[in-house]
Design goal:
Number of strands: 11
Oligomer: single chain
CATH architecture: Alpha-Beta Barrel
Number of helices: 12
CATH class: Alpha Beta
Strand content: 15-25%
CATH topology: TIM Barrel
Radius of gyration: 19 Å
Helix content: 25-40%
Shape: globular
Strand order of the largest sheet: 1-5-6-7-8-9-10-11
Structural class: alpha/beta
Largest sheet: 8 strands, parallel
Length: 330
């Protein structure tokens, strides 16, 4: 009866040669430096150093045991999404990495729960790959929060979300492809400010774009990184909806009416921030997420929940486990 972590990532050590298996172009590659370390490369540039906790199930399971984690949702690293490629290329990439995810999770199918990626720039192909992945053993899908300039209220993306609602496929939304500039390319500012802003923007798009008015409430939807800055600025959002309906009054109901339509993870690190999430969304809408195994993640997993004295035992159990079971449909 341990913790369920809904936000972790994998990288396969058996990285496919995408230029051969998909087509010519600038693709990320993996430089394997040893049995335990590798470097994700973008062309000739080093993108991220990783360890064997990205691909070795035994290492992951040992870390899970140390942190009291019973199950992990294992999702793609957003760099894999390939939304900037053609739909046909993105389908091939998705199939390759989705099949590799199954291999990584195979040693512990009751504990390592794979989520698939889909070619979201091609909604019809995304629906097909989601169905294939679920039939192959995946438990859900992870998507990026936008495809170029198309946010989650784009008609094609809404079609995909409706498909997931009809099929009972949980969807985990992860921020990615944050804008860069001389101001944002310092100090990991794209990750420290861009990620929260991206997630906030996409939740707003779901509300003001009328998506929650068109997609069935059965859609199980969750956002990474605590929903970004959304909870902190809900009051400003609500005020703007009421004061300037001529500009933003698109949704059928005020923003606060949709708070039960999505969940967020708990990887906000500070009990005060977690309290804001719980006070805003309710304890039923928050699940443990760690961003394992990346260095900006939380270890031990669930630490902020355990340190939050304002939560009672029922709320802690909900956040540590029960809400994730509901999200996963178990």
């Amino acid at each position: 009866m341990g913790t369920i972590d809904v936000h972790t990532h994998f990288v396969p050590s058996a990285w496919p040669d995408l230029s051969t298996q998909v087509g010519p172009g600038l693709w990320p590659t993996l430089r394997v430096d040893s049995e335990r370390e590798a470097m994700i490369m973008l062309g000739e540039s080093e993108f991220r150093r990783i360890g064997d906790d990205c691909w070795d199930a035994e290492v992951r399971l040992a870390d899970m045991d140390a942190d009291g984690v019973e199950m992990q949702v294992v999702s793609p690293t957003p760099l894999f999404f390939s939304y900037d490629k053609s739909g046909d290329e993105a389908v091939k990439v998705a199939r390759l990495f989705n099949d590799l995810a199954l291999e990584i999770c195979a040693p512990a199918p009751d504990r390592l729960i794979p989520f698939a990626q889909v070619p979201l720039q091609d909604p019809d192909a995304a629906c097909v790959e989601a169905d294939r992945a679920i039939a192959s053993g995946h438990a859900g899908v992870e998507i990026g929060n936008h495809v170029g300039d198309r946010d989650l209220d784009d008609a094609g993306i809404v079609t995909f979300l409706q498909h997931c609602a009809e099929r009972g496929i949980p969807v985990f939304v992860h921020p990615w492809d944050m804008a860069g500039s001389p101001r944002l390319d310092r100090w990991m500012a794209r990750w420290l400010t861009g990620m929260p802003a991206e997630t906030h923007l996409s939740i707003i798009a779901l509300i003001l774009g009328g998506v929650f008015d068109r997609v069935p409430p059965s859609l199980r939807l969750a956002f990474a990184h605590g929903g970004g800055s959304f909870a902190f600025w809900l009051g400003r959002f609500e005020n703007a909806w009421r004061q300037r309906p001529d500009v933003i009054g698109v949704s059928a109901q005020p923003p606060s009416s949709y708070l039960d339509r999505f969940s967020v993870d708990s990887v906000v690190f500070d009990p005060a921030a977690l309290r804001l999430l719980v006070d805003t969304l309710g304890a039923s809408q928050v699940m443990v997420g760690s961003d394992y195994p990346y260095p900006l993640g939380e270890r031990p997993v669930g630490d902020v929940v355990h340190r939050s004295a304002f939560l009672d035992d029922v709320e802690k159990t909900a956040i540590l486990r029960d809400n994730a079971l509901r999200f996963l449909g178990r």
